[in-house]
Amino acid sequence: MKRASFVSLAFLALFRATAARAQDTTVVDTSYVEYSESPISLPLGVGLRIPTYDRVNGVTLPWGPKIETSNGRIDIDALVRYRSNLGKWDPSIEGLLRPGDANELKFFVGRGTFSNEDWIRSDLANSVAVLLAGSDARNFYRSDKASARLAHAIMTGGSVLTPYAGLNYERDWTTGSLVPTKSPWSFYGRTGRLRMRRANPAIDRGHIFSFLVGTGVELATGSVDSKLDAKLERSIATQYDGNCFATPGGLFCTSPRDAFTQATADGTVKFPTFGSQTFTFRGHGVWTPAAAIAPAQRFAYLGGSGTIATVDQLALGGDHLLYVNGDYVIPFDRIQLPYVGSPFLALSYTAGSAGVGGLPSLIQNLGVGVGASILRVDYFIDPARNRSPVSHKSALTFGADLAF
Q1: Which of 106, 201, 271, 343 lies at a CB distance of 3.0 to 4.6 Å from 224, suitable for a disulfide?
Q2: What pLDDT digit, counting tens, does each position of 58-99 carry?
Q3: CA 196 → CA 23, 299, 365, distances in Å?
Q4: CB–CB of 243/253 below 8 Å?
């Protein structure tokens, strides 16, 4: 018995020693596999982008792959945009190349529908206004375009200065109609001549080759937020088709326009005053030297909700434009409404005008508004004793702040 027990204990000790040595000599696998994602992707899983909606294009639905590197140096979209009301498929390649931390090359090559009024409302806000109220704050033209712009960011303290220079070549033509016989669908104003069937102005069909210089400025110091974009365009070469009209004296054809220079500036400043009250200034200007008139595809327009409320939608236009707006908002913090929070009172002043070859007298509006959260209702009056023929005595507007 004792001998058997001794043998058993000896085998057990030997087994444990062998197991311990095996454990000590086991090689730990410290290798790993590095996975890299493909730079080519399909946004939203199928390649779709956020659509837009307006009275000329109808639904604009972009589709295509995105090429984006993990270091952010390359961000390119190869897109095809379908425009339901025009029945057109517009291809384009556009994007950003960042050769350095402070440098950025932005480019676009393709066909599209373009507007000079995208400063009035964002794409989302304009699409919602068109769908619900038939209110389109943009005019459009069609173009084959190739453009490139090199920018350099200069950061100092709380400000960012982004000067840039670029080249642009385009072949433009008119879209839409002065007397539309059809229009996309909307909840309200589908057949209105000042809404979904508002005329889209003609442009000068032809080619423009130009260079651009400009700068963007963003300033955030303390509680003051401001932004300014300024651009100067000078045509290098232009060629336009003559527009001919039948007159009692025969056929009259307009001569091609001269070379042009045009400056554009857009800016906003917002800051607090007393407590939670805020003041916001907004301005936009377009100036073309009187020596030459810019082609109609460089005209800018004013009027209606979003600019001068007492003027019909985009009834003022030309190669000279000035728009200024001051908005003072007074929240009632002690009142809390369900879901929307505190209501507010807004006092506003607006002045602006636009014309060809010069700037006509300014049209002024005084307004008072009430709202809560993103919703707002404003009542405007034109205080002038001798009002402009294109301005009404008063106007009521409904709006929503969709800037996220």
Answers
A1: 271
A2: 999 999 999 999 888 999 999 999 999 999 999 999 999 999
A3: 80, 21, 25
A4: yes
